[in-house]
Write a structure and sequence with these properties.
By secondary structure, the protein is α/β, with parallel strands linked by helices. Helix content is about 20%, strand content about 20%. It has 4 helices and 7 strands. Strands 2-1-5-4-3-6-7 form a 7-stranded mixed β-sheet, sandwiched between helices. A hairpin with a 5-residue loop joins strand 6 and strand 7 (about 105-110).
């Protein structure tokens, strides 16, 4: 946590290549990786005031819409460079919550329970509601469930 998230190009469902940052919005954002062949588990059940980006692997096809995958309202993109997949695998996460300044506020471990995930997202929601612009680093550090650094497992 506390590190800027990568800013790769992603491919939209209509085949446009765009910087990930262009899709994140101006507030907090949840970026989660879809696992091939695994049904999506809703994160926060739509209660969170944050943008939601669901990423598929660069060799996967868009086969269903986000609502059918348990993520209504999410923007689905393909990892055009493979960098998001690499960073998530190396870090042992299935999702990250980004602050408005695009620094990582929290990482959601691959094996995090639904309760753990909801607690992190609810804490983000509380902070986002009282912080109109950029989250103060001190508050974001309080949300850290596990240390997240690109290239390093979260369990180290």
């Amino acid at each position: 946590c506390g590190r800027m998230f990568i800013q790769p190009n992603v491919e939209t469902e209509d085949s446009r290549l765009v910087p990930l940052d262009d899709l994140l919005g101006s507030g907090f954002a949840l970026v989660e990786f879809e696992q091939p062949g695994v049904a999506a588990r809703p994160l926060g059940e739509g209660r969170m005031p944050l943008s939601r980006i669901r990423v598929i692997a660069r060799d996967e096809r868009f086969v269903a819409d986000a609502a059918a995958l348990g993520a209504p309202g999410a923007i689905r993109v393909r990892d055009a460079t493979g960098n998001i997949d690499r960073v998530f695998r190396e870090s042992g996460v299935r999702a990250v919550v980004l602050r408005p300044d695009r620094y990582v506020a929290a990482g959601i471990a691959r094996d995090a329970s639904r309760d753990e995930t909801d607690r992190v997202l609810e804490a983000i929601m509380r902070i986002s509601m009282r912080t109109p612009a950029v989250t103060r680093p001190r508050e974001a550090e309080e949300l850290v469930v596990t240390e997240w650094q690109p290239g390093r497992s979260m369990n180290q």
